[in-house]
Amino acid sequence: MAKAPAETAEERLIAKYFRPLARHPGAFALMDDAAVLTPPDGSDLVLKTDAIVGSVHFFIEDPADAVARKALRVNLSDLAAKGATPAGFLLSLALPTDIGADWLDAFSRGLASDAERYGCPLLGGDTDRTPGPVTIALAAFGTLPRGTMVKRSGAKVGDRVVVTGTIGDAALGLKLRGQSDAAARWHLDGQMRGHLLDRYLLPQPRNAVAELVRKYATAAMDVSDGLAGDLAKLCRASGVAMEIETARVPLSDAARTALKAEPELIEVILAGGDDYEIVCTVPAADCNRFCKACADKGVPAADIGRVVAGQGAARFLDAARREIALAKTSFSHF
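Structure (tokenized):
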């Protein structure tokens, strides 16, 4: 009798690090080359994919568990902004030769932790070797009642503009990683410095308020490339303009302290990216109710401006209603 071929190294890697995460019955314990996901009756399936690349979206020396959680969370953030409930994800992982068992152990633990926390199981994926930096690409799936996905294109003149959480922390955290004297220049204490660094390292997707976004918002998206640039995208999709009161943009104590020390940081805060908050437009009559409902879920939300007639522009105004000129409005890979 012929001897059965031994498992390949790739099969052993998948079995050890990722099969324990594939608990959804449609994943078939990662023993097949496809998965099955059946949305509930009367539901739509929302699809999203984002990749993160070493030395582009995270530092090579970042803890592997945090890298895994960031990779999943940036996709969950988009699902939240569409009003969708996470249903599962596919993982494509390209590993350089210097990635070993310790990194994979930590990576799979971090991924398992957040997959359970957010109810988003691993369904399948692919593993490859690469001569370049580690690359993690996820495709996430969510569900919502049929026809209720909140698009970018629904904003209406008179709506209020609302954003969750705080803006600019991650971009300032990235600057701290690259400028050893920044914390002292900005007069940050240890807690403030740690807050900014953590916000860059590990996003906080707002899935807790996804249902509220679906209930109240006329348009929504997650803030990943900078508030100014992402508002411009939403304006273009909806065929409107916006007036944003810059003083009402929510800032953490750390960001406010840094901005007081260096007022020119306003551009980093408004355009730097990596916030992974939700920005949405809400009918004026519902705005207070929406913000309170978000707060009841543990997610602060702030009314920062209004939708006005116009085409594809978001104007940031100071206290005297003068427009603040931003040389750069958005992060872009190209």
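The longest helix spans residues 64-82. The chain has two domains: 9-145, 152-317.
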